[in-house]
Amino acid sequence: MLHIGIVACSTEGAALCYRTISLEGAQRLGRHDHPEVSLHSYSLARYMKCIDSGDWAGVAELMLSSAEKLARAGADFLICPDNTIHQAFDLVEHRSPRLWLHIVREVAAEAKRCRFKRLAVLGTRYLMEGPVYPDALKSAKIEHRVPGPEQRERINSIIFDELVNGQFVPRSLAYHIEVIRALKDEGCDAVVLGCTEIPLLVTPESSPLPVLDSTRLLARAAVKKAVED
Q: 186, exposed or middle or buried, with CB in 10 Å at 0-12, 13-18, 19+?
């Protein structure tokens, strides 16, 4: 089996990705079994310093540094369970020592497989206002919608003040459900949980729309590649 390298950014999202790899591995391979996994993480603070200043080249350098460390540790390919920093992916991919799976391409592939036509996209403000999902979904010929400006700010605050710190409170769940319901009324037929911590708050059972859980989709794709390649 191939060795999976996780380029981590936020703790909760990376932990969910690692946990999903372990669980998915056991389902495919047998009790307690999964592919070899290595993880490297710079602090979220270092990433946010670059993101807040629009320094995507700086984000790319952090990702590449993690990639180099993971390659030296024996990783055969890489994943990053953070949607936002994929805005730097084009600066990373051609310089990387290892092949990457792209989290948004995995989401788009699943949306296409499920024949969804218009996706609601939730995530950080940087993600909802950035090019990462529009570019990938356009290539897949899938429409998308994002919440309005005030909703984007509120969701962003919930992510950085609560979710990345492992705080999942009922009022924040209720707010996300309200936003998803409004996007459903705009014709969306599924919702992308495009911050890797949102799936820890919003579950398929609580969501008014079918969910595309970016973290778990990436983890499952990584296990599939590690086992089948």
A: exposed
Quote the tokens at residue 140.
């897949």
In single-letter form, the type of residue at position 43 comes to S
For CA atoms 55, 102, 26, 168, give the dihedral sign: positive
Cβ pair 193, 202 in contact under 8 A: yes
- CB contact at 8 A, 188 and 68: no
Contact 88, 117 (CB under 8 A): no
Distance CA 101, CA 79 (A): 5
Q: 3-class SS at 165?
A: helix
pLDDT by position in tens, the chain (length 229): 999 999 999 999 999 999 999 999 999 999 999 999 999 999 999 999 999 999 999 999 999 999 999 999 999 999 999 999 999 999 999 999 999 999 999 999 999 999 999 999 999 999 999 999 999 999 999 999 999 999 999 999 999 999 999 999 999 999 999 999 999 999 999 999 999 999 999 999 999 999 999 999 999 999 999 999 8
User: H or E element: which one contains 29?
Assistant: helix 11-29
Q: Is the domain defined by 104-213 classed in CATH 2.130.10.10?
A: no
Q: How many Å apart are CA 196 and CA 216, to the nearest integer?
A: 9
Q: Which residue is it, tokens 């990387």?
A: 96
Q: Where are the domains of the chain?
A: 4-102+216-228, 104-213
Hey, what CATH topology would domain 4-102+216-228 get?
A: Rossmann fold (3.40.50)
Beta bridge mates, 8 = 41
- Three-state SS at 122: strand
